[in-house]
Amino acid sequence: MVLLFLFAILLFFDSSTAVPNGLQTYIVHVREPHTTVSSNSLDRESWYISFLPSSSSITGSEDGHDRMVYSYQHVMTGFAALLSEDEVKAMEKKDGFISAYPDELLPLHTTHTPDFLGLKQDMGVWKNSNFGKGVIIGVLDSGAMPNHPSFSDVGMPSPPPKWKGKCEFSACNKKIIGARSFVEGAKAMLGRSMPASPSDESGHGTHTASTAAGAFVEGANVLGNANGTAVGMAPFAHLAIYKVCGQSGCAGTDLLAGLESAIQDGVDVMSISIGGRMARPNFYTRAIRHRNV
């Protein structure tokens, strides 16, 4: 079972953005395929494609595959696609349809520290947990700066055999064991290209990843002040980085794609410091709440 460990999460998609051609990215929930349909990913995608407009109803050279942004299997039964309001209304009449809502950009949030939680290095639950040794933490954020001292792998064991993830930059080690980037949702919403590297542009993902599992870094300070040892919550845990946020925020479709990959990769714990802009977000209609991860 994958644990959804939320350091600071208020998941609410509260403002949608249309793409220039009048289409909009929707997250679509459907029922599981019929038992006669194989569970492999190609057949599942064919099931999803059946909900999209037929090629005869789409102008130009587009077809259902061109409209598909993401196909989900583990995090939810459904997909993300470029659709018009009329196409969504037509889709609602199809057998197996559950719900659809526009993709939205989410703002980044932050986390707290071991001191705030009263954790002690030489006693108690922190020490007894072996500082997270053997655990894989998936961080869904703005990426990471891999050469940061908090990501040193000195003294780290090799990744557990169950790890099946990938590394899309050259600096992975025994601390950062995987790094991937998911930006197709943001590209579809904003109508422009996005950096595909999982490297961090804003510093937020580096901050949250090091808060989750940063190594012990002695002599840390801010402009010569507050000298001490910087350390994350689980300094012996491994990190899997999933870049799902850019300078403009985090597309819900990209967040779901990151969750999908993390589950497949063998992540144990997920850190998501992403939130909404309202005090009382309406969770129950949203994709993260549709799945017990």
UniProtKB/TrEMBL annotation:
Residues 132-288 form the Peptidase S8/S53 domain. Keywords: Hydrolase, Protease, Serine protease, Signal. One of its GO terms (molecular function) is serine-type endopeptidase activity. Residues 1-18 form the signal peptide. Residues 25-109 form the Inhibitor I9 domain. GO terms for biological process: proteolysis. Belongs to the peptidase S8 family. PANTHER family: PROPROTEIN CONVERTASE SUBTILISIN/KEXIN (PTHR10795). This is Peptidase S8/S53 domain-containing protein.
